[in-house]
């Protein structure tokens, strides 16, 4: 007959927390023979449980404690094993109620999963993503190609792209772009201040957007593989519904290259928050109202955003449509990471999606990483070590260029860089106060009309 494995052979089955718990339980058994029997019995019972249960931390702990209580009960009830010390509380009570405790624990795990599944989009997908990673490794596919490796387009954007066909489900454009409109909401009308770079009074504008901000959704996703096609589609539909209800982004491009309009071009979507950008004539603050938001369904991995060639082609077509339709300048097509700011601390890069690796060339756009951020040159914003760390130890080249420009300007004016930044910060605060007051008045008028 095969002898039972020794405790030394079986202890590897437990993590540190469970080993400590086993030591604590066995310390209550005074007889060394009984103690050794209890340890062996508990470990054998634990090893006999399905491996899938022993992988999940919460379930693993529940299973272990249940097996240990069964072993204690078997030892205490056996005349051949002698007596065992069971304190009145809590061990004896736990043994007597072990079945009820197991049921309560399992119900608690189930309820926690239910609550997590309803607490915001993506929380409930974390367990599924873990399971996917255990079953099938994430394949090395085109989505893992660094975005900067996509070939640059040689030709300029077309001057005239027109709408070919429109129905209840979407639009077809002359460059092959298909836009699905089943999730579209109108959004509120655009109204924003443009601040002339020559210092003239600000101009209140509305109507067509003046730029595009590119985003990365950075949501939890299943691996991009044939086996998960249905799960990928289901995740995208859930995300689109969530975004549409909250009017986030104007467009989203899924991993198969399908383009969805979430908020109409003339409507304001939530996407840029506190942000700053400028073209040759104007400076713009808080770009929700003045820029269109386009998001790639993607995930941050190994220091870069993961997107597919299909998404790049769709983004190229969508960019051409939007630029042609609204006469958007190249200079105003920019990633979110380059415009996002912390207005309180006067820091750039509050959100860092696409602060590196954006495929400008493949979309027929100039490289905005080379431009000094207007948030720094116009309003004196700076950066901290947290941003440097988040971007892998190196910022985009335009930041260093902005620092050199500010230093040279301070020297010309005969002041320190700190004094110059303080003056520029004050200009920002005055401008943003005007923007905030205007939005508040607009909200009051809207409520009055209702």
In short:
This protein is α+β, with helices and mostly antiparallel strands. 44% of the residues lie in helices and 14% in strands. It has two domains: 7-119, no CATH class; 161-449, Lysozyme-like (3-Layer(aba) Sandwich), CATH 3.40.80.10.
Supply database-style keywords.
450 residues; Lysozyme-like; eight-stranded mixed sheet; four-stranded antiparallel sheet; 18 strands; elongated
What does it look like?
The chain is an alpha+beta fold and 450 residues long. The chain has helices at 7-10, 16-26, 32-47, 51-55, 57-76, 88-96, 98-118, 126-135, 229-246, 309-326, 336-339, 374-377, 385-390, 397-413, 417-449; strands at residues 163-166, 170-173, 178-180, 188-189, 191-196, 203-206, 211-216, 251-253, 259-261, 267-268, 276-278, 282-285, 291-296, 299-301, 304-306, 333-335, 341-342, 347-348. Helix 3 (32-47) crosses helix 5 (57-76), helix 5 packs antiparallel against helix 7 (98-118) and helix 14 (397-413) crosses helix 15. The longest helix has 33 residues, at 417-449. The model is unreliable at 117-149 (pLDDT under 50).
